Structures are given as C-alpha cells and as structure tokens.
C-alpha cells in the first residue's frame, strides 16, 4: 500500500512535533515543508530530513502527490492558509485556533464540508490514554450523572515582564491570548469527556503585566539568548494573562475554569475534576498516567494507566504496558493515528463519525472564545452562538 504523502507549513515549535508524530505511524510520509523563504525552507528541510522545500506554501499546494497538508503557522494566517489548502482539494490538519474569530472559522467549516475534504484540528489533549478511558467510563455510566466540572490550565512561561513572544501581539495572536491559546484546550477536553457542549459563559479577564519589556535584539521567550546585557523596549499588552470563566452546559449542569500564563511552577498544567452522582474524577496533564477517583463510602482510588485495566473502547489509545508512562507526544501521535487511519480507510466526515477533533470542534472553540470576550466586556452571561453546519 502506498504511503499517504504529507506537506507541512510552518516549522516553529509545533511543526516538528507534528512531523515526529506522523513518522511514528509508518504508513504516512512527510515529503515537503514550506516556510516564509526558500532559504529558511531548505535549511529546515535539511535539518528534518524532508526532501522537498518550498519558500511559498502556495507552490507546495500545486504538488499533486501531496494528499494532506498541516497548518502549523502563527494564528493570524490560519484562516487564509486553511482556506487555500481546502480550495486546493487537500485534506487538512490545522493548529488551533482555527481562525481569528468565529465568522472566519464558520466559513472554513462550511467550505471544508462543501469540498468534502477530511479536516482536523489539533486538540490533542483529548487523545491522552487516560482521558480516552475516562470518556468511556462516563459514557458507560460508571460515575453516574455528571453534575459539576471545574479545573484550570496554568503555565508560567510569561511570568516575568521580560518574557515576550509573538502570541502577545493581538494582530498576530488574536484578541484573546490565554483563553484562545490554552483555555480552548481545556474547553475541548472537558466537552469531549462529558459529551456536553458549553452554551453560556460569564468571564473575568485580567492583564497581570500591562507593560512588558521586549528585547530589541529580537530574541523571544524560549530562545537560547541570555537575559543578561539585553536592551529592551516597553510594549503595552492588551491581551489577557489570566481568566476565570463560569460555564453552563447544554443539559443545565455547571462548571468553572481558570487559565493563567503567569503561575510560577506550573509548566503546562491542564487539569479538571468532574463531580458526578456516584463518584468524582480528577486528571492532571502534568501527571497524565494518573486518574484520581473519589468516593464517599469507600477509600479513594488512583488508577494508573494500564491497558489491562482500561475500558475496551479506550485500549487503542494506550500502546505500552502499565508503568511505561505515555504523555504529550503520545497523545499527539494518537491524534495523527486516528486522523490518518480515517483517510486510509476511505471514510468521509459526511457519513462517518471521527475519533479526532474536526473543524466543527474548532469552530465551536472560536464561538466560545468570542462569547468569553463579549462576556468580559459586558460583565454578564453571554450565550455561545454557534449555527451547526450540516453537510449538503
């Protein structure tokens, strides 16, 4: 069987992680990448062992051998590039956010459905093995009726005033930062696990560091440059470092979450607790192999990831024996495995249910983000406006 051929647009942090996950599948081959210049594309292609390099992604889209394209670029160009990929007739995997607002994401969803391409959004946290098992437990009724959901997504990479990154600029990262960047992952994971959509929000946002110092040398947070002997310029910040959001789900159940990019010691801590009528459960992405299960009338439990202890529906998400911990890269691999298996089996999103996040999930995420921004602005409850697109 011929391998599925793939092109990657963008090779910052996330692009190479997509490439690594794809290469673990065995039946998919990354044959090309595109960057903002031919020189940069050739340099990255040589580093990553990819045969074809394009200085303009539109030229790569003309390559008839390429069946799938991954959009791993900064937020402000997601809409245009996703649209071009779809119009070229390629299947598409996009990083989130899908676009800069819900109008754009709705247009992309409708276009992808019209063109009949397979479309995915990299909400990879739902693909953690223990999250998959938890989703099966809730579906099976093991926990009883879900009543409450609460949690947070905390990071510390923007704690200092000298921390700077392109995501801080609204014209590049979007009107929302912490909510769109990490809150979107929390909402998607919780909605996937519970099977309930968020329909209304009440939000309070804050910019903890209103003025940051940007290195005039151009070095950003995560770069190898030392903070010593740097010259800085002051930059006013207009996007949120922090948010707390009350949520209402479609069945009337309630929840709340906090996001922060200025919480010292929290590196990438997406966590949530689900309180149901029989038991409660807690999961934390920094310790992904553990699922805490709380009881009233017997001792609490910690379920370690182990295929022999998982629900049958979740066993395909775990690949090693118990005690051989699987984490973030493995969740990303699961996303790619599910997406590309869907394509290899000739399935269609018009008729078949996917086991990965699609543009419909990406559009819902944008609608939630827009509602959160509007709620903070008006300081009141705001409904999530989403017109569900239907295949014609």
SSE layout and pairing:
Elements: E1 4-9, H1 14-23, E2 28-34, H2 38-48, E3 52-54, H3 57-60, E4 68-71, H4 78-87, E5 91-94, H5 102-115, E6 119-121, H6 129-139, E7 146-154, H7 170-173, H8 178-194, E8 198-206, E9 211-215, E10 232-236, E11 242-249, E12 254-260, E13 269-276, E14 280-284, E15 290-294, E16 301-304, H9 328-344, H10 359-378, E17 382-383
Parallel strand pairs: 1-2, 1-4, 2-3, 4-5, 5-6, 7-12
Antiparallel strand pairs: 7-13, 8-11, 8-17, 9-10, 11-12, 13-14, 14-15, 15-16
Overview of this protein structure:
- With 392 residues, the chain is of the alpha/beta class.
- 30% of the residues lie in helices and 24% in strands.
- The longest helix has 20 residues.
- The two termini are 32 Å apart.
End-to-end C-alpha gap:
32 Å
For the biggest β-sheet, the strand order reads 16-15-14-13-7-12-11-8-17
Question: Structural class, from secondary structure content?
Answer: alpha/beta
Kindly state the mean pLDDT as a whole number? 95
Order of helices and strands: EHEHEHEHEHEHEHHEEEEEEEEEHHE
The number of strands is 17
What gyration radius follows from the Cα positions, in whole Å?
A: 21 Å
Our count of helices gives 10
Report low-confidence residues grouped into runs of 5 or more: none
Percentage of residues in helical conformation: 25-40%
Outline, from the CA principal axes? globular
**Largest sheet features:** 9 strands, mixed
Our estimate of the beta-strand percent is: 15-25%
